[in-house]
Amino acid sequence: MKKKYWIYIITFLVICLIPSAGLIFGKSDVSSENRELAEAPALADKDGFNERVLSDAGAYFEDHFAFRNEWVTGYAFLLDKVFGVSAQDGVITGRNNWLYYKDSLNDYQGAKQMTDRQLFDVAHSLSLVQTYAEANNINFVFTIAPNKNSLYGENMPYYYQGFREDTRNFSRIRKYLDAEGIHYVDLYNMLKSQDEILYHARDSHWNNKGASLAADAILTGLDKEHDRYEDRSYIVRRDYEGDLDTMLYPASVSKEDEIYYEPAPSYEYCEEVESNFEPKISTKADGKSGSLVMYRDSFGNALLPFIAEAFGDAYFSRGVPYQLTDLFTCKADALVIERAERFLPDMAENAPMMAAPIIPFKTLKDLEFSRDIADLEVTNQGAFTKITGEVPMEELDTDSKIYIKVNELLNYEAFPVALKDGKEGFQLLVASETLSEDNNTFEIHITHEEDES
Question: How many whole angstroms separate alpha carbon 275 and alpha carbon 264?
Fold first, then answer.
């Protein structure tokens, strides 16, 4: 074989071995993705020999090979500049250097839209929470953080066609929220009416100015006295690293402008906090009154400072399902639920953890549909027992309510739950002391439109 071919072969092998050999000297322990890196493989586990050692070794190599971020970035640049596509399944490369989160694509294109029943599930569950909060003298607000491409879809790739605004989930759910009397703060129309762009080009969220305007709308919806940032001075620094940019180009992130108000929001963390993305955060603000519980997602990262400074005490949670016992632990007088537009379907599938409302017997006596049910999942959780089951779809109207009679003693209204297989279910929490160890009876009652008249 000619010498030049040996050179080509050796060069190729050396290049291929760099990631593996480099583990000794240049192992990558930093991931741009929002997940934990694989741990080093072990030959033995608690049961003896680790049968997954080879797959564990492969996962470890995939996460830690040398110069990983540089290889990932180079590959992403190649696909973007040559083929105009994204190297990350979770990121869409748009026009004018804009990036979009792919999880928002269904909303943008109108694919897998929520059914009317699922929209009702969300709205009615919120109404049960709102009624519960207000019965305990707690102000309540619900709001939806718009997807970036719902507000600024002009830089989406041409081959993704946008869905009509009036047929998207966030528009369709509005009539159900209104019908249930939900105290809703409309961030979409507020942000859409602004002359400037308030989301980052290479991140999936709003910038600090967008967050300050959203916080102002939420606090106004709560009738909470607060500082307004509309006319406050600010400086602009090019130091913001977008989450989508970091996912796509981990070794070559393009920093973009961020707004910093002067003076900044005034509050303190009650514990050590590395970032506002942490699952549970407690804050306090000197000279302010009131106590807040806020259930939020990643849009709440930038919201938190502007909300926190309005309350003497505040608790921010990203936990799902929502644990309504937090209201009493925190002695809250305000409750906010913020959810990103793309997470509305998840809300239909995750009922809040809240004691089921007890209803009078007369509510059930004239209902047309009722039957005993035995196929239930009953889970004891200490002071409360969680009861879940499936509902006959053919018996449901869009706005049917679900009641459960337990042991012929108490009637409860259950939270409606959209099951992942397209069926419908329910969930309720009842005091464990009202149940016996066995031989409990459960009877389901479903309302129809004529029952509500």
Answer: 16
CA distance 312 to 322: 22
pLDDT band at 51 (very low <50, low <70, confident <90, very high): low
Instruction: Quote the crossing angle between the two packed helices 169-179 and 116-135, to the nearest 10°.
Output: 50
Whole-number average pLDDT of the chain: 85
Give me the amino acid identity at 411.
Answer: N
Decide if pLDDT at 87 tops 90: no
Domain boundaries, the chain: 3-66, 99-349, 358-452
CA separation for the pair 244, 98 (Å, rounded): 10
> How many angstroms separate the CA atoms of 255 and 240, rounded?
5
Instruction: Please work out, in degrees rounded to the nearest 5, the angle formed at the alpha carbon of residue 48 by the alpha carbons of 46 and 52.
Output: 90
Residue 422 CB neighbour total at 10 angstroms: 9
CATH class (in words) of the domain with range 358-452:
mainly beta
Rg of the chain's alpha carbons, rounded to an integer? 26
Q: How confident is the model at residue 10 (pLDDT cuts 50, 70, 90)?
A: low
Gap between the Cα atoms of 371 and 362, Å rounded: 17
| Whether this model's pTM surpasses 0.90 | no
- pLDDT given at position 223: 97
